[in-house]
Amino acid sequence: QALVRDLRQVIANDQLSLVYQPQFSIADGGLTGCEVLVRWQCPKRGAVGPDVFIPLAESNNLISGITAFVVRQANKELVESGMLGDTIRRVSVNISAQEFNSEKLMSSLLTMLHQSPQLYPYLQLEITETAALSDLSASVRLLTRLRELGLKFSIDDFGTGYSSLAMLKNLPIDEIKIDRDFIHDLLDQPRVRAIVEAVATMARTLEISVVAEGVETQEQLEQIRFCGCHEVQGYLTARPMEIDQLTDFVRNQW
Ligand code: G
Ligand code: G
Ligand code: MN
Ligand code: NA
């Protein structure tokens, strides 16, 4: 419970930090966007991973405070860097399942958008299929309203839950991210390759972009290209990095 207390403290004091992981077009290698990831560097404990503190935040009613920080800080850093809207035209932020299904999501998002007007037109929300499917018709209504506000949507960790065709049929989404477990098995398992290829084909017809996550090797990049995925995100092309490194990265590449 000391951990929860410290987490509450760092959220209140804006002491979390952000890293950004670039995403690239497989067709031409161009930068398509980036995913924002939150980090907690604790003086006492060292780095505490989001896989630890995000679930903790969810169960202690702290998650909306984290998301508000992430959006506000990304807005600030990306505006200061001068890259927003110029080189960086899509910024993805993770929305946890508990938050997605909370009554308060709409009002807290409206507040965030209001506070981050420069980021707003470029903002994409990543939600998981499990979160979206817990009440599909409610999710359709919610995403439809948010889309009218100009937000974009990505289905994160695609393939790890109940990847339903009803979801693809009904939800107004812009992107799906194929989970890195699939990418990991791509070279060894023909079944996985068949699935990824079929998903990419289907998504293309639906005008949904397919991002392959966790691409670590050149061989995996070649396979996802072969399967028809549109974008790549992974250690091969770029690691998550702080804003200053991102600025250097963009400057050196383009
Ligand atoms: O960045 P890393 O691989 O350590 O992330 C581990 C997990 O934490 C991933 O599932 C990722 O989606 C999640 N995560 C990272 N940043 C955020 C965030 O800002 N909000 C939420 N809700 N989850 C995040
Ligand atoms: O669940 P989500 O997709 O939000 O998680 C994103 C996390 O995946 C990031 O926090 C990042 O640290 C991690 N990640 C990004 N690229 C790679 C990769 O190539 N390999 C592995 N193992 N993890 C990655
Ligand atoms: Mn994600
Ligand atoms: Na993921």
The CATH superfamily label reads EAL domain
Count helical runs: 12
Helix proportion range: 40-55%
Separation, N- and C-terminal Cα atoms: 47 Å
pLDDT < 50 runs, ≥5 residues: none
How much of the sequence is in beta strands?
Answer: 15-25%
For the record, the count of structural domains works out to 1
Tell me the name of the CATH class: Alpha Beta
> Which fold does the CATH topology refer to?
TIM Barrel
Classify the oligomer.
single chain
Domain EAL: 1-254
Organism: Lacimicrobium alkaliphilum
Protein name: Diguanylate cyclase
Please give the structural blueprint.
Blueprint: H1 2-12, E1 17-25, E2 31-42, E3 46-48, H2 50-59, H3 63-81, E4 91-94, H4 97-100, H5 105-115, E5 123-128, H6 129-133, H7 136-148, E6 152-158, H8 165-170, E7 175-178, H9 180-185, H10 190-205, E8 209-213, H11 218-227, E9 231-233, H12 243-253
Parallel strand pairs: 2-4, 4-5, 5-6, 6-7, 7-8, 8-9
Antiparallel strand pairs: 1-2, 1-9, 2-3
This protein binds guanosine-5'-monophosphate (2 copies), manganese (II) ion and sodium ion.
Descriptive overview:
The termini are far apart. The protein is globular and about 50 Å long. The protein has one domain: TIM Barrel (Alpha-Beta Barrel), CATH 3.20.20.450. Strands 1-2-4-5-6-7-8-9 form an eight-stranded mixed beta barrel. Strand 6, helix 8 and strand 7 form a beta-alpha-beta unit. The protein is α/β, with parallel strands linked by helices. The protein contains twelve helices and nine strands. The site of manganese (II) ion has 4 residues, from loops. It comes from Lacimicrobium alkaliphilum. This is Diguanylate cyclase.
